[in-house]
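Q: I have 93 residues here and want to know how they pack in 3D. Can you give me a structure?
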Amino acid sequence: MSKIKITPLFIALVVLEVFLLFLTFNYLAMDNNGGNALGGIIALTATFINGFLIAIEQTIVQINGNTKMLWAIEIVIIIAVITYVAIYGISIG
């Protein structure tokens, strides 16, 4: 990748990456006891997955030159995810 292109999904993923890095550091280094250590490992795993998603997203942006269409698609995806989480919440089980 020669240059990072800014897209709405990239901005959202970078904000999430910073938040996950904070959680990982907090739960693994500062508040390391019992379930918090497990939370730190889960946050660390999510950090790696999020970094992988950023790499995939930037690869797609580099291949596809139509940035206006990408912006429209990514904004629709972000709004759909926010709406889903607002209605149903986040639940593992």
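Q: Anything worth noting?
A: The radius of gyration is 16 Å. The first helix runs from residue 8 to 30.
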